[in-house]
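Submission sheet (multi-component)
Chains listed below:
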Amino acid sequence: MLGLLLPFAAALAAAGDEPRVAPDPTAVSPGVELWDAVRERQPFDAGQVRTQPPGGERGVLINVGGEAWRQFRMQELIPVAARVLGGVAIAILLFRLLRGKIPIRAGRSGEKIRRFSGFQRLVHWTVAVLFVLLALSGLVMLFGRYFIIPWLGSEFGGALTYWLKRIHDFSGPVFGVALLVMIITFMKGNFPALYDLKWVFKAGGMLGGHAPAGRYNAGEKGWYWLAAGVGMVVVVSGLVLDFPNLGGFDRDAMAWYHRLHSIGAVAIMAVSMGHIYMGTVAMEGAFECMATGYCDSNWAREHHDRWYAAITDEKSPSDTATGLVEPAPEPSAATRQQAG
Amino acid sequence: MARMKFYCDAERCIECNACVTACKNENEVPMGVNRRRVVTIRDGEPGERSLSVACMHCSDAPCQAVCPVDCFITTPDGVVLHNKDTCIGCGYCFYACPFGAPQFPLDGQFSTRGKMDKCTFCNGGPETADNSPDEIRKYGRNRLAEGKLPLCAEMCSTKALLAGDAGVIADIYRKRVVNRGANAYLASGSLQKGAFEALQTPPQPE
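Outcome: structure written.
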């Protein structure tokens, strides 16, 4: 019996002599490194990553940027956009209640001055119609879950949003082209001048007093450059989001372009509400400019004095020929001569 | 009610991709979509590990939070399902998801994003009629309705991929961890330590 046990005892003794690593309860679990690599935390060394399914980011185990984008959309974009757009709407309503409709003080002269060419109006209205479509469909994608879906139900509301999204996708590139043409067509007259500062200080005449303006006032010029600058940012970022199938941008890049797209779009929508209000119901004689291409001479004198002075003083046959100043129909032309 | 969970044991997954194949076959997923994928990190190095990933059916699902049409539902079993009739294919869930689960088959002549497709925990869609032809066409098989678990986990050869009620999964995994921890503690230099790189130098004898 002893003989049987002795070899084991010897073996145990021998094992005891070998340098053994002592158990260490404070040892860090090796799993930590695995999950650091998975979560792309520091230290991050995932070595060579491989996966079978094809496609750009199939090898990414955790999309670390996703949560940041979720926070942006849900905690920042939606509440801020609601406040900005709602605030502008309330401001316009208050302005209307306080100031009412802005009349032509001298009354209509009946004399018409050519303000926009047919091509300019075509470009403006193309951009305008596409803009309204894009803005409405975009707003539904932004806020729809809070009113479209509870109101119409997910079956109909979903289908409606689907078609609005399709409209958004397809009118976006067309809008980009139309916007480019509009930027070129309306560039003349939109470069800032010194008297624009005066207009800005007088808040465009909102505080009373006269604010000077050329062919376009400083507010319109600001709107033009905002539409041109921010508009192109929105168009380009929108094109990135529009063609995920081309695979040129990864998930994080698309989320960043979405941030640009949505912030720019909300900014433009907020300012556009002011533009649409001023151009339609706010001011007597404003809408007919873009509707018919002609404005009343008294309207021009009151709101675009520098432009009015320029075209009436330098009225020459060449100007008339290019359509900058166009003699209006006979009776009003007669009125003008009598007045002059 | 159960709280359904997936768990993939990195110490057991052998990257055989059978879960990927089984899922594609069982659910007849659209072209170009893999509801499940196996990712190997440190491929070919000491410490190589593989994980099988699909939708993890989050309690606070980011996809559900950001959806513009609110088309996701969480079933009483804790499975996150989404409605393909309501889905607009905007891709927001794809931006927000931590696991890369939402995928989009290319749709139409302009190859835009189609309706989103993701793992359903083999629970079909939100339709009330389980395993109706419509549900199978859109979402695949509803195995949960038949009293079965997701096929990927059921047929996993090493039982690396576990699916089922969170409590049961946690118990199984806890036992494994305790066993491995005991091994590591007793031997100090276990398969786990030796494999994923020992972080500490052995204490020097005094």
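Remark: Residues 118-185 of chain A form the longest helix (68 residues).
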